[in-house]
Specification:
Length: about 110
Amino acid sequence: MSNYIEYKDKVVFHPGYYIKEIIDESGLTQEDFAKRMGTSPKNLSILVRGGQNLTVDVAARLSRMLGTTITYWLNLQQMYDELRAESLSDEELKKEKKVFKLLDYKY
């Protein structure tokens, strides 16, 4: 997975993108940040790379640690998921149209 999605005139970033920025600005290593957050460095690394979705549990840990709300983090994940789903849906539709065209099927 990628840390961001560009689709049509929209760009959204995976929550891991923002977490990485916070880690970089904090001066902590990713390992130290993970320990303070109460998760493993491996799980944090996967999240930062955009390889897994942000869970409610992780959102709660981030909100406690950073003084944000759980909703803030979950909204970032939701925006990312929605644009990703829209993009994938359009790609699937394009593929279907090609198949129907080959079959000479009229909509």
